[in-house]
Amino acid sequence: MGNTPSEQERIFREWMRNQLNENGIRRYTDNAIIAYCYALRTTCHKMVPPVAGNLFFISDAKEFQRVYKDILASKDYEQVNRENGNGTFGIAVKLYQVFLERGSLGGAPDMDAPFYLKYNSASKSGYNRDHNADFNYEEVPMTPMQCIFYGAPGTGKSYKVSTILEKEYPDKQERDSHCKRLIFHPTYKYEDFVGCIKPLLSLDKPLDYIYSAGPFTSLLKDAFSHPAEKYFLVIEEINRGNSPAIFGDLFQLLDRQENGKSSYAIQNVEVSSYFSKDPGLKKLFAEGKIWLPANFNILATMNTADENIFVLDNAFKRRFRLEYVKIDFEGMPEKWTQEYDTFAGRVPLTELFAGTALEQYVNSLAREDRLKRNWPTFARLVNYLIDKMNRDIIAQDRPELARIPENKKLGPYFVSSEELNNADNFLNKVIFYLKQDVFTYSNHYMLDSYEEIYLKYRDQGRDLFELLK
Asked: In whole angstroms, what is the distance from residue 379 CA to residue 468 CA?
């Protein structure tokens, strides 16, 4: 039985550390070893279709040779190799091939590595047989993601973020070690996000104080410790907390240069001192300044329909790329699109809405074979009503009438598939929302109290689509 992937990677790392040139100096820096191993673990996933997964699953030279031929034959190889570390993947694959063919005692050839992975002979802490040098940090040029995904509730914003993370790190354990996910809320503070000094209580020792790092700081330290690997800070509901206050002085770091590094460093003694406790990072933060490296990514979601939220000012939003996640019912899993009993009714929908404001739209859905007694149809009709009511207000030149914000619309994943299968849960989740938040000031829809609506459609089993007549 062969080695596990993690064991195989450990042996390969050790082999690279033991490769010396004619002067007895290590051939590969720590940054290079990190970058090559990262490339072998993740890069094959980025080809379409993926040629292989984590290459450390392969420990047999003949089997690897077959996979290597497939990699070189892939139409995406040149582009993926160029875009992921300026050729780092190609070098890593060749090195791993040599390692498998020659064994752990064999020597490695010279490779023309990217400049930031080459050994710096001018370094005062050069590598040799008798001295293990301090970690020599070199910024790896990347294009970091700094993006806020926004839209109506239930459009799949968090799912979109998860898809990005899973593509970068298909292995869950590896993904968890490179990503931190948190949620902002009204009582969330800078100290929770970045860190603060806290008392350390002990029964047998006097009172002491320590710096307790927040999720931002701990992930940033990992990013500096492994400059060739990507790290992701995910902030859910970024506008439910006071984001400018939570970021505080870190706000200055959000401006990035073309190489991905923060345009401006800031003086932050607490964070830099925390980093300096690691011997490998001590020299890097000797001046007490911190910045965001190119491998530190920030992804956030923002539900624009939430009430009682903090408004993100333009200066804050300008430092992020904003991406609208639209409402799209196409391609939803069957558990959301099947015709549950919750939507059952005796009258065909074309007949039910004949002579109403929805008649033309319902008929068009029928012609497209998209008119069904299911969740997508119900949500589409609600969203159409919102647009029509707003258009009517504009057409009638009635500014005194309250328009319904577009972000009040129903997204495809506003409700879970389990709630669709239970009329009581559906009423409490969706109909209550429509009554309280969407058609609050409507003179035509849901005029009864919620209690009356609940009794009619829960206890009497009335057709839910009647609510939209």
From this structure: 10
Per the structure block, which two tokens stand in for 319?
């430092």
pLDDT tens digits, 111-138: 776 655 665 544 433 333 333 344 567 7
- Residue 458 is predicted with a pLDDT of 82
Residue with the two structure tokens 């490695």: 108
Entry pTM: 0.72
Residue with token string 């196409």: 330
Place of tokens 């490296």: 293
β-sheet bridge partners, residue 180: 233
State the residue for tokens 């074309």.
350
Report the distance separating Cα 345 and Cα 160, nearest Å.
Answer: 35
Residue in this structure with the two tokens 């790190």, named with its chain if needed: 169
Longest dimension (CA), the chain: 90
Q: How confident is the model at residue 107, as a pLDDT?
A: 81
Question: In sequence order, which residues have a C-beta less than 8 Å from that of residue 258 and are 6 or more positions away?
Answer: none
Query: Helix or strand or coil: residue 30?
Result: helix
Query: How far apart (Å, rounded) are the C-alpha atoms in residues 280 and 288?
Result: 15
Q: Which are the contacts of 217, defined by CB distance < 8 A and separation ≥ 6?
A: 194, 195, 271, 274
146-324 is a CATH 1.20.58 domain: no
User: What pLDDT, on the 0 to 100 scale, is given for residue 328?
Assistant: 92
Q: How far is CA 197 from CA 209, 211, 415, in A?
A: 6, 4, 42
The model's pLDDT over 262-299, given as tens digits with 9 standing for 90+, comes to 999 999 999 999 998 887 788 899 999 999 999 999 99
8 A C-beta contact, residue 239 and residue 312 = yes
Q: Is 303 helix (H, G, I), strand (E, B) or coil?
A: strand
Structural domain boundaries in the chain = 5-117, 146-324, 334-468
Structure tokens at 192: 């929770």
**CA dist., res. 94 & res. 113, Å (int):** 12
